[in-house]
């Protein structure tokens, strides 16, 4: 029995861009028109938090159709009556901390059990250095955290890691307070926030010194204008379909309208090193973001070494890369990915445990994983640990005809890719 994967598909809107589009629309003055928003649970959390702050954000439609956000400016935000529930979304909690830090009221951010286990001082420390105050109501360095807003000072912050969430929180704090801020990070992290700020007329300057990247925002002091934008497809979601096409025996898959921002395409570059061929067609700019159609066909893969500067641009796709390596020839070694231990779950431990549970060879490292590929059948049950990317990665591997893999929590994929399992079926997979 052969696995044939072919079709012409689109993936849900980009999660990172959806979060930011909603936040900027709610902070702008005037009516914003947004299309293609990801309706997943994480982005619904952002919309819900903004509504609790008095913003006119409608329910996100399941089909990505247009919504209109009636923005009254960030100065019109009001103190929430209850704690702001960020669900499972780290982006919601961390970026909202930056926006709330300059507001003249207090707000408490919380989330589900998984989010309450993730570190937050990486965000509160630089904001506190700007003058914000925080009160931890739970375990140290964890939600729930009360943000006690007020006037902020500018800052020149040197981040210990390349992190879009750290960088964005500082930039949004400076934007809300109207003070200049700069962030220096050891490598360029996702740049959606600064691209969107630039598109909205704010002055953002970027410079590089050696391996360090410096970003400086000088707020204009003007009200943010409303947005009119279509959110492109999420490259992290597209990665799972790319992997499925590579694992197939025959066929060709086209994935349309995918964001190909260079800070988000690390997975595509890595699988090309493994032997894949991914063609970018119809390349264009949409809302300041590079967009293209991806064309992918089956390919024999070989193991590679991954580390250093390659990791930040592929951090969310490392689970799929590691699982894909179980079907590559030779050994794949991934290092420098310690950040995976503080995602929705400890993804390094989850990957190693699940790969071994289905009969693959995997060795857990402190900051990564080693996977030795084979062509033998892989069979057994895996635990998603309430992590959408773990569930989807092993779901893709389970589509190979010789494999028999059961995912214990299929519904968790709705966080980022509603309709994922149905799409696999439409593409001809089991």
Q: Beta-sheet strand percentage?
A: 15-25%
Uncertain residue ranges? none
CA-CA gap between termini: 11 Å
User: Main sheet?
Assistant: 4 strands, mixed
CATH superfamily of the domain at 7-12 and 232-426: Enolpyruvate transferase domain
Specify the CATH architecture of the domain at 7-12 and 232-426.
Alpha-beta prism
Integer average pLDDT = 96
| CATH domain fold name of the domain at 7-12 and 232-426 | UDP-n-acetylglucosamine1-carboxyvinyl-transferase, Chain
Helix/strand class = alpha/beta
Specify Rg, calculated over alpha carbons. Answer: 21 Å
Helix count equals 12
Shape assignment: globular
Strand order of the largest sheet: 1-13-15-14
> Quick one: how many beta strands?
21
What is the name of the CATH class of the domain at 7-12 and 232-426? Alpha Beta
The helix content is: 25-40%
